[in-house]
Amino acid sequence: MDYQHLITFIMEMLGTIAFASSGAMTAVEKNMDIFGVSVLGVVTATGGGLIRDLVLGITPPGMFRDPVYALAAIVTSCCLFWILYAKKEWLSGAFRATYDKIMLAFDAVGLGIFTAVGISTAVQNGYRDNLFLLVFVGTITGVGGGILRDVLAGETPYIFVKHVYACASIAGALFYILLQEGFGQVTAMFGASALVILLRFLAAHYKWNLPRLKGSD
């Protein structure tokens, strides 16, 4: 395993843990049992990569060729379930604000890392010069798992209603493309991930939202 592939593996594993935690926490809020928590954790962690691989024609998708990521998502989800089961008070009262911040952090880290990993995968498969595909694949890798998570949880996907979620991923994808030309893939991955995470935190803190129409009740 060369240096770049090692960095990609480490980042993808961190993103898997972060997104699995985000999915598991959403499932806990919906009062799902441990099986539901595990399913939502795995779907959130691997869904974006599954869509990415299908778009790029990579079959079978990576989650089936190398199940280590799905296993990591299951372990993460189960551990988080039992922690929250033992500490139910964290879900309400004075702990709620901290819980929400932790959930935001997991989601932001997962989004940033998977946006970068998505583009890196496309580049490694020979699509370096197809800028539209790079941006699309990076964005769908970042937001795809979250969309599936929200649909399974019975919610309107977060990316369509709040805090410039997909826009942060698109901005990170464009930044990756700019960085890779002058600084290489590894720097581009770190830089794009950091930008997406920063934008997500800023959007949540300052409540940045895209314009929308509100229908009458």
In short:
This protein is an all-alpha fold and 217 residues long. 76% of the residues lie in helices and 0% in strands.
Structure, described:
With 217 residues, this protein is an all-alpha fold. The protein has one domain (3-206). The protein has eight helices and no strands. The mean pLDDT is 92.
Secondary-structure blueprint of this entry?
Layout: H1 3-29, H2 34-56, H3 62-65, H4 68-86, H5 96-124, H6 131-152, H7 165-183, H8 185-206
Helix pairs in contact: 1-2, 1-4, 1-5, 2-4, 2-5, 2-6, 5-6, 5-7, 5-8, 6-7, 7-8
The number of distinct helices, counting runs of at least 4 residues, comes to: 8
Low-confidence stretches: none
The end-to-end span amounts to: 58 Å
Number of domains: 1
Shape: globular
Structural class computed from helices and strand pairing: mainly alpha
Report the mean per-residue pLDDT as an integer. Answer: 92
Total strands: 0
Fraction in helix? over 70%
Strand content: under 5%
Could you describe the largest sheet, including whether it forms a barrel?
Answer: none
List the secondary-structure elements in sequence, H or E.
Answer: HHHHHHHH
Compute the CA-based radius of gyration: 17 Å
